[in-house]
Design goal:
Elements lengths: L1 H26 L4 E6 L2 E5 L1 E11 L2 E5 L4 E6 L6 E2 L4 E5 L2 H37 L4 H34 L1 E3 L4 E3 L9 E2 L5 E6 L4 E8 H14 L11 E6 L7 E8 L9 E8 L11 E7 L4 E6 L5 E3 L2 E7 L5 E12 L2 E6 L7 E4 L10 E6 L14 E3 L5
Parallel strand pairs: 1-23, 3-24
Antiparallel strand pairs: 1-22, 2-17, 3-12, 3-16, 4-11, 5-7, 5-10, 6-9, 7-8, 9-11, 12-15, 13-14, 13-16, 14-15, 17-21, 18-19, 19-20, 20-21
Length: 394
C-alpha cells in the first residue's frame, strides 16, 4: 500500500511539472512585428520662419501743385499706369490768362530795354567827343541796367506762368497700380493739399518682418564662425516666402536692409527682403511667412515623426539590436524638413530604429524587425530648399 501511494505521488508531481511547462510555453508572447530602418543622413541648411507683411517699394499720394477746379480725369480706377501718363487736368483758363499777361509784360520790358540800349550807345558816342557829360552817360548806363533787370523779371514771370500751365496736367510720378479717384470732376483742388489718388509700385515688392534678439545674436555668431552672409543686415541673403494661398509656389527674394538698432520696447529688429513680382501676384498689405537661412550646410540626422515616442517629458526613439531587443534613446528634436524630423542630439545616425509599430513595443518583449530603407525625401512632403524652423527645438 505505501509503495502504491508513493508511485501515485511521483506520477502526480511529474504531471504537474509537465503541465506547468506547457502553460509557461503557451504564455510567452510571440515577437512583435515592427518596421525598422536606418535614419536619413543628408546635408541641410537650417532656416527660421517669421511672419511679415508686403509693402510697396514706392508709394505716392498724388496732389496738384496748383489750385483750381478739376476738369478732366484720364484713367480707370485700379488700373496699371506708367510714369508720365496723364491722370488729371485742372481748368487751364485762369493760367492761360496769367501766361498771356506775363508774356505782354515781357514784351514791354524788351521794348524798354531796346530804347535804353540805344540811348546808352548814343550817350557813349557823344561823350568821346565831349558833347555829352559824364553824368549823363552814367544815367544812361543806369537806365540800361534797370531795363535789363526788368526783362529778366518779366522772363521769370513768363517761366512761372508756363510752369503753372504744365502743372495743370497732373501725370503719374511712377509706374504702378493706381487707386480710385478720390475727387470728382468739378470739385475745387487746393494746391499741395488735396489728395487726388494714390499709386503704389508692384515690381519689385518689399517684405518687412521682425527678428528677435536671440536669433539675431545667433545669426551674428554664425557669421563670425563661418564668415557667411548671416549678419544683422543679411545683405544679399536668399530667402523664400509663402502666402496664405496654399496653391501658390514659394517666392524667392533677397534680404537687402535691416534697421540700425534693436527696438528697446519689443527687443526686435526690422528686416526687409525684396522680391521680383513680374506677374503681380504679390500685393502690398499681404501677410506671408518668410524663411531665412539660419546656418551653414551641415550633416543632419532625419527620422519620421512616427518613429518618435514620449517618455514622461522626454522624446525618445527605439533602437533595435541584433538580438531583437528594443532600447529607448532620449533625443532632442529640431525642425521638420523633407518630410522628416531633425534630431539635434541623442543619435549618431548609425542606429536601426523602429519606424512603424511603436504601439506593439513592450518592456522586455523582443520584436521581429522588418528592415526597410527610408527615401531621402518623404513622398508626402514638398522638397523645401532649407529646413524650416517650426517652433523651438525640443
Amino acid at each position: 500500500m505505501p509503495k502504491t501511494l508513493a508511485r501515485i505521488a511521483i506520477f502526480s508531481f511529474t504531471i504537474a511539472i509537465l503541465t506547468g511547462s506547457q502553460v509557461l510555453a503557451q504564455s510567452a508572447p510571440p515577437a512583435a512585428p515592427v518596421t525598422v530602418a536606418k535614419p536619413v543622413v543628408r546635408d541641410v541648411i537650417d532656416s527660421d520662419e517669421f511672419i511679415g507683411r508686403f509693402q510697396a517699394v514706392d508709394e505716392v499720394s498724388v496732389r496738384s501743385r496748383v489750385g483750381g477746379y478739376l476738369q478732366e480725369v484720364h484713367f480707370e480706377d485700379g488700373t496699371m499706369v506708367k510714369q508720365g501718363d496723364l491722370l488729371f487736368v485742372i481748368d487751364q483758363r485762369p493760367f492761360i490768362t496769367t501766361l498771356n499777361e506775363a508774356t505782354a509784360s515781357l514784351e514791354v520790358a524788351n521794348s524798354s530795354l531796346t530804347l535804353a540800349d540805344a540811348q546808352f550807345k548814343r550817350a557813349q558816342s557823344l561823350s568821346t567827343t565831349g558833347s555829352q557829360s559824364a553824368s549823363t552817360l552814367d544815367d544812361r548806363r543806369r537806365d540800361l541796367l534797370s531795363a535789363q533787370a526788368n526783362v529778366r523779371g518779366a522772363q521769370a514771370s513768363v517761366d512761372r506762368a508756363n510752369l503753372d500751365m504744365d502743372f495743370t496736367k497732373i501725370t503719374a510720378p511712377l509706374s504702378g497700380r493706381i487707386d480710385r479717384r478720390l475727387i470728382s470732376v468739378g470739385n475745387l483742388v487746393q494746391a499741395d493739399q488735396t489728395i487726388l489718388t494714390t499709386i503704389v509700385s508692384l515690381d519689385p515688392i518689399d517684405f518687412y518682418f521682425d527678428v528677435d534678439e536671440r536669433r539675431l545674436l545667433s545669426y551674428a555668431d554664425e557669421a563670425r564662425k563661418h564668415g557667411s552672409a548671416l549678419q544683422q543686415g543679411g545683405g544679399g541673403l536668399n530667402v523664400t516666402v509663402k502666402i496664405a494661398d496654399a496653391g501658390q509656389k514659394e517666392f524667392k527674394g533677397k534680404l537687402d536692409f535691416a534697421e540700425n538698432r534693436v527696438d528697446n520696447q519689443t527687443g526686435t529688429i526690422r528686416v526687409r527682403a525684396r522680391f521680383p513680382n513680374a506677374d503681380l501676384v504679390l500685393q502690398p498689405g499681404l501677410f506671408g511667412r518668410v524663411q531665412v537661412e539660419g546656418s551653414n550646410s551641415y550633416k543632419a540626422i532625419l527620422v519620421p515623426d512616427e518613429a518618435i515616442g514620449s517618455d514622461q517629458n522626454q522624446r525618445v526613439v527605439y533602437t533595435v539590436g541584433a538580438d531583437g531587443n528594443v532600447t529607448p534613446k532620449a533625443v532632442r528634436l529640431g525642425p521638420k524638413l523633407y518630410g522628416y524630423r531633425v534630431i539635434r542630439e541623442g543619435m549618431t545616425g548609425d542606429e536601426t530604429i523602429v519606424v512603424n509599430g511603436l504601439m506593439r513595443i513592450r518592456p522586455g518583449v523582443k520584436v521581429a524587425p522588418q528592415l526597410i530603407e527610408l527615401p531621402q525625401e518623404a513622398a508626402n512632403d514638398e522638397a523645401p530648399a532649407h529646413a524650416g524652423a517650426q517652433g523651438t527645438d525640443q
